[in-house]
Automatic annotation (TrEMBL):
Single GO MF descriptor: metal ion binding
Record has Hydrolase as a keyword: yes
Reaction(s) catalysed (UniProt annotation): O-phospho-L-threonyl-[protein] + H2O = L-threonyl-[protein] + phosphate; O-phospho-L-seryl-[protein] + H2O = L-seryl-[protein] + phosphate
Cofactor: Mn(2+); Mg(2+)
Organism superkingdom: Eukaryota
One of the Pfam families matching this protein, by short name: PP2C
Gene, per the UniProt record: LOC101782036
PANTHER family, A to Z: PROTEIN PHOSPHATASE
Top enzyme class: hydrolase
Species this protein is from: Setaria italica (Foxtail millet)
EC number, as in UniProt: 3.1.3.16
Protein name listed in UniProt: protein-serine/threonine phosphatase
Length: 386
């Protein structure tokens, strides 16, 4: 399938296939969750959390996978991730990483907080409980600074990605020598956002400026072999980076003495034959404090970003009347662009997760921003993507 959602309340669109998932918060009005989902402005209405969608392309099995976990690390914590597999076993790699990586990250985070990381012989046991969810003050009282929070999550993510990469190598029925996956993850802990990324999937934030204009902010970097520091590391380790004659714009990674595998990314989970030659499994981890103008985050695979700009994706989500259709609208727009821009090429898998950071006045905020942008356009002033 390609999608996994951990939530007490998950709605699936009945008119579509199983690849559409719309997650709503469990905190709904009524004793049995009987509040009307469409009543966004009502205090007792269900809070919209995320929209997930994965669409198979024309290249074979769907190698993308997406996930959302609620209650991650704290009561209102959220984890969401997008994974793009490649190679002969790519569809299995991406789904295995989807199923295990979130809990490995949380496990390593818990071990760091408990100070027990050095006491165990192996990886710390999986756990859904987190000391960070404690509110009784026993954990030291004050909240960590953004720098401390980033350091803690960066270490937890680095350890978990390394452990996940080792786990892939141990799979008896999965050859990951030339198969692997990207991973882009967003972890929301209250107002804090932690982004962990490796490969060429991407996270983009839609935020509204003080002037009332919406803009797209790229939160992660694409780890392409053509990026100078990535290419330098690969070449230093004996790997080669060059593009094929029939696609001069796509830099790829090759083994020292063989014209294979031609990997189009500089970091990944799996691809173990390339690990000695500079293709690393270390993620880049960043932190952002959610501001009052931040509306939503879009995580998507390169099937989306190869044909749609950050601004176009934000605009598509803004223009979608119902939140539950947001990720599907992004994926379908990308597939359509593939067909029109590259009519002789096979459409890539297209998957997206839209994580909503605001709820009650989201529609009104977008409408107001559109009106202001239209007025600015009429006056000849620059404006944001919506």
């Amino acid at each position: 399938m390609g999608i996994c959602a951990s939530s007490k309340r998950v709605e699936q669109e009945q008119e579509c296939d199983e690849n559409v998932v719309y997650v709503m918060d469990e905190q709904c009005g009524g004793d049995g969750g009987g509040g009307a989902p469409g009543e966004e402005d009502a205090p007792a209405a269900c809070r919209k959390v995320a929209s997930l969608f994965s669409q198979k392309g024309k290249k074979g099995p769907n190698q993308d996978a997406v996930i959302l976990c609620q209650g991650f690390g704290m009561e209102d914590g959220v984890f969401c991730g997008v994974f793009d597999g490649h190679g002969r076993c790519g569809q299995y790699v991406s789904k295995l990483v989807r199923d295990y990586l979130p809990f490995m990250i949380l496990s390593h985070r818990n071990a760091l907080l408990l100070g027990a990381g050095d006491d165990d012989d192996g990886d710390p046991a999986f756990s859904d409980a987190s000391p960070s969810s404690s509110t009784d003050g026993s954990g030291g009282g004050s909240s960590p600074s953004p720098a401390q929070l980033l350091d803690e999550w960066r270490e937890a993510c680095a350890n978990a990605f390394e452990a996940m990469d080792r786990e892939l190598k141990l799979q008896p029925n999965m050859d990951c020598n030339f198969s692997g996956t990207t991973a882009v993850c967003a972890i929301k802990q209250g107002r804090d956002l932690i982004l962990a990324n490796l490969g060429d999937s991407r996270a983009v934030l839609a935020t509204m400026s003080d002037a009332g204009y919406l803009r797209a902010v790229q939160l992660t970097a694409d780890h392409k072999p053509g990026v100078a520091q990535e290419a330098e590391r690969i070449k230093r380790c004996g790997g080669r980076v060059f593009a094929l004659k029939d696609e001069p714009s796509v830099q790829r990674v090759w083994l020292p003495g063989e014209d294979c595998p031609g990997l189009a990314m500089a970091r990944s989970l799996g691809d173990h034959r390339l690990k000695p030659h500079g293709v690393v499994s270390e993620p880049e981890v960043a932190h952002r404090r959610v501001g009052r103008g931040d509306l939503f985050i879009v995580l998507a695979t390169d099937g989306v970003w190869d044909v749609l700009s950050n601004e176009e994706v934000v605009s598509i989500v803004c223009a979608t009347p119902r939140k539950q259709h947001a990720s599907k609208a992004v994926a379908e727009a990308a597939a359509q662009r593939w067909r029109t821009r590259y009519p002789l090429s096979r459409v890539d898998d297209c998957s997206a997760v839209c994580l909503f950071l605001r709820d009650q006045d989201w529609g009104g905020t977008v409408a107001a921003a559109r009106a202001k942008a239209a007025a600015a356009a009429a006056a000849g002033a620059p404006h944001g993507p919506c």
